[in-house]
Amino acid sequence: MVARRGLLGGAATAAALLLSGCGLGKVSLEKALNRAAEDVDGVTSTGLEVGFEAEFRRYVRGSVETSAASAEEALETFGAVMAAIVAAAYEHSGREEQRDRQAGEITLLDASGAEYDMWDLRPELEAERGRLDGVLLSDFEG
């Protein structure tokens, strides 16, 4: 009886970890997204993470650093990074599963340390979405 309770408790814990975004899928998706961003020309480092927030809203957030010296070059790199992240997310888990993942809290830092956010990259999304947490991966589909 005790062994069966332990087994059921272990299964419930494993299920809770997977649902909370702490499972193996989270780690492998994070690696795929960071690898995709790192492969973009001009990117010097990445720090993207994925997970779940309240009400099980899924997110990808973090920062990407680039060697870009001008705002124009930085935004061009940022656009390429977002396209690469979307492609990697869809390849990893499928479009339908990933398209509604929040992506508004991804920022890019240029060589001088200037920070760019989604409103810098896509100003029209500010009027359309209203909040950074409303910006989705699907907004950057290629």
Characterization of this structure:
With 142 residues, this protein is of the alpha+beta class. The protein has a single domain (23-140), classed as Cation efflux protein, cytoplasmic domain (Alpha-Beta Plaits, 2-Layer Sandwich), CATH 3.30.70. The protein is built from six helices and four strands, in the order ααββααββαα. The chain is globular, with a radius of gyration of 17 Å. Mean pLDDT is 84; it is low at 11-24.
Helices, strands, pairings?
Layout: H1 2-19, H2 24-38, E1 43-52, E2 58-66, H3 71-93, H4 95-98, E3 106-109, E4 115-116, H5 118-121, H6 124-129
Parallel strand pairs: 2-3
Antiparallel strand pairs: 1-2, 3-4
Helix pairs in contact: 2-3
Alpha-beta classification:
alpha+beta
Largest sheet: 4 strands, mixed
Please state the average pLDDT score: 84
Evaluate the radius of gyration: 17 Å
Using DSSP, what is the number of strands?
4
Return the string of H and E elements: HHEEHHEEHH
The best one-word shape is globular
Tell me the CATH superfamily.
Answer: Cation efflux protein, cytoplasmic domain
The total of helices stands at 6
**Percentage of helical residues?**
40-55%
Number of domains: 1
The CATH class is Alpha Beta
